[in-house]
Design goal:
Distance between the termini: 40 Å
Shape: globular
Strand content: under 5%
Largest sheet: none
Structural class: mainly alpha
Oligomer: single chain
Length: 207
């Protein structure tokens, strides 16, 4: 039942390494994975109750966004920026292997332990949404990094807009689902997220 959730991110990381052949990024994968395991070990020891899901779009979005998107990404990637002595380019381009490896562990755990674990949204849509988001964020950081050498303002604006918009989509789509909104409302957001990802891949190949 959970095969798709378990294998999607490892497959994406495998494709990433096949395309980039960056052996130095293995340390980022190890760091991201171990961080996720540490977080869940602490969570299991320190928390005993499950959340009761309200039919409130705002409450569900705030909870999901800060717990499953903002805090994991900002803390993990922020600490990486602070502690790493590598170049800014390495830090920008290291976003995908670091964060994707974290979600390789983080996302399946959340899906399996979720009260909605047996729904198609949790098993199929949620992994796709988060992988798409991480790919879009990575694309945004790549654009910002490209501005360092080209000294052009547009890549920074373009990349920042992609990051600011894409980071909201998974939590909003799941909040719509949990708040019992019509099915097409979150399907639109899923398709929009995939559209941004596909456009980013096409533009990257043409540049």
């Amino acid at each position: 039942m959970f095969t798709f959730s378990l294998l999607l991110f490892p497959l994406a990381l495998g494709i990433y390494f096949a395309e980039t052949k960056k052996k130095s990024d293995v340390i980022l994968v190890i760091t991201g994975s171990l961080t996720a395991f540490l977080i869940f070990a602490l969570k299991e020891f320190l928390t005993l109750s499950h959340r009761i899901i309200p039919l409130s779009l705002g409450i569900n979005f705030s909870y999901l966004f800060f717990r499953e998107t903002f805090i994991p990404i900002v803390l993990l990637y922020g600490v990486f920026w602070i502690l790493s002595k590598d170049s800014a380019e390495y830090k920008f381009l290291g976003f995908f292997p670091l964060v994707a490896s974290f979600f390789t562990v983080f996302l399946p755990y959340n899906v399996i332990t979720s009260p909605e674990a047996k729904t198609a949204f949790e098993i199929l849509a949620k992994p796709v949404l988060y992988l798409s988001m991480i790919m879009n964020l990575a694309r945004g950081f790549q654009l910002i990094n490209s501005s360092l050498s080209s000294k052009k303002v547009f890549p920074v604006i373009h990349g920042s807009l992609i990051i600011a918009f894409s980071i909201l989509l998974p939590a909003m789509a799941e909040a719509l689902f949990l708040s019992d909104f019509p099915w097409y409302s979150y399907i639109i957001l899923i398709l929009l997220s995939l559209f941004i990802t596909i456009c980013g891949k096409i533009l990257k190949k043409n540049t």
